Amino acid sequence: MLSLSAAQALSVARVAPPQPRRLPKRCNAVIFIFLNIKGSETAMTHIAILGAGFAALTAVRELRRRKVQADITVIAPRDDLHYLPSSIWIPAGLRSGAGLRLPLARFFARHGVTHLTASVTGMDAARRTVQTDAGPITADHILIATGGRFLRKLPGIDNAIIPCEGLAPAEAIAARFAALTSGTIAIGMATNPAEPGAIRGGPMFEYAFILDTLLRRQGRRDAVRLVFFSPAERPGARLGEKAVDGILAEFARRGIETHLGHKMVRIDPDRVVTEGGEIAADLILFQPGMTGPAWLAQSDLPLSPGGMVQADALCRVEGHPGVWVAGDAGSFPGPDWMPKQAHQADLQAAAAAANIAAELQGRVPGKAFTPELVCIMDTLDSGMLVFRRGKLNLVLPRLKPLHWLKRAFERHYLRAYR
After folding, report:
1. What is the extent of the structural domain holding 255?
2. How many CB atoms lie within 10 A of CB 403?
3. Has residue 243 been placed in a domain?
4. Which residues pair with residue 277 across a beta bridge?
5. pLDDT digits over 181-207, tens only?
6. What does the pLDDT look like over 18-63, one tens digit per residue?
7. What are phi and psi of 408, to 5 degrees?
8. CB–CB of 306/150 below 8 Å?
9. Orientation of helix 342-360 relative to helix 54-65, angle to 10°
10. pLDDT (0 to 100) of residue 380
């Protein structure tokens, strides 16, 4: 069921699903009888997907792959995908911000999806109604895939660049890095103390390694000091002990200094201040812990200690039938190493789509997502692989082919959207 005002309707670009090839009348009659016997979902069924990132788009693909013919509305303020995993290469000129912004109009058309240009402002989950700045939307199923946000409680955090907030921060890093002739670059990360798993630290290791490689290529390394900081004594613990040992050894090999195990106090324009001392810096990159989107405060959704939507292993929101969550906006059961990354968001979205399809087809949903961590930490000329699933924790040392594997995966993944 879709509820739109006239003003909202003007802002919606509705694209009809691809029209089937005309069939003989006898075939049409057989199909009509078959669909009525099966009791499949009708076009009146409405699915609202909040967001236009990895989880949201994977859900669209999986729903259509499973022959779900319901109306699908994607609610997001923009109609392009920002491929952030490759933003680490912007300072090196391997990628540009424009090249990592992929228009989604053709993708939406191919999958028969309506895009509503709007931002979510709240939700009445009990009534399955989403509040947006373009008005309320009611649906039979709602998938929350808006992503999370980074905590900004640390005093002076605006003096640092938060790389994973978007492509613009990566472009700002590139400009500041290019203008730096000498000085110190401080690169750090922290977590959400209320939910330690709400952290995205991998890109910070990559920035440290990539900027070191780039400075050496440019003959500037002796003039620029690199310091990695974190309140954790062993940052990256979710990757496994062997991986952390490898990261710290790589820091030492490259001459990247570390400032670890000290609680952060504030970030000044020219320094990072911790309880264990200060780091004078000309450029500060810092990735704080994560929490849920701000609009959750205007909802009746159950929240985790860290401020994310509480979900079960089937991606159902507890106590709210027909409401689902995938990706960084959710808090899920699983091992303590379960990551906040695009790959895990895709797995959760695929499970949510399978379970929505099951309900629409009159079956009991039973698809649990797989907790899985896949990370290639790029160094610009090589990479280190970490893989975790169940009790398996595979760590490969720095290898040149892994850099090219990461680039090949990017091309493969984005084919669906180009």
Report:
1. 151-289
2. 17
3. yes
4. 274
5. 999 999 999 999 999 999 999 999 999
6. 443 444 444 443 333 334 434 444 457 999 999 999 999 999 999 9
7. -65, -40
8. no
9. 40
10. 97
Q: How far apart are CA 402 and CA 396, in angstroms?
A: 9
Are the C-beta atoms of residues 74 and 115 closer than 8 Å to each other?
yes
Helix (H, G, I), strand (E, B) or coil at 232: coil
Residue 129 shares a structural domain with residue 171: no
Report DSSP state, residue 16.
P
> Residue 202: what residue type?
G
- Ranges of residues in the chain with a pLDDT under 50 are 1-42
Separation of alpha carbons 338 and 240, rounded Å = 11
**Nearest CA-CA partner of 15 in 53, 79, 67, 71:** 71
- 3-state secondary structure string, 255-290? CCEEEECCCEEEEECCEEEECCEEEECCEEEEECCE
Q: Are residues 352 and 231 in the same domain?
A: no
The answer to the question of residue 391 being in a domain is no
Determine contact, residues 279/299, Cβ cutoff 8 Å. Answer: no
Specify the CATH number for the domain of residue 213.
3.50.50.60
300-304 contact pairs (CB < 8 A, 24+): 300/123, 300/124, 300/125, 300/126, 301/123, 301/125, 301/144, 303/331, 304/195, 304/331
In the structure encoding, which two tokens stand for residue 81, read together?
A: 């995908």
Q: Work out the angle at residue 199's Cα, subtended by the Cα atoms of residues 198 and 204, and round it to the nearest 5 degrees.
A: 170
Count of domains forming the chain: 2
| C-alpha 13: how far from chain center | 25
Radius of gyration of the chain measured on its C-alpha atoms: 23
Q: Are residues 157 and 281 in the same domain?
A: yes
Domain check: are 283 and 297 in the same one? no
What does the block give as tokens for 59? Answer: 């859900």
| Tally of CB atoms within 10 A around 29 | 11
Answer whether residue 15 is part of any domain.
yes
β-strands 373-378, 323-325 pairing: unpaired
Q: Are 164 and 288 in contact (CB under 8 A)?
A: no
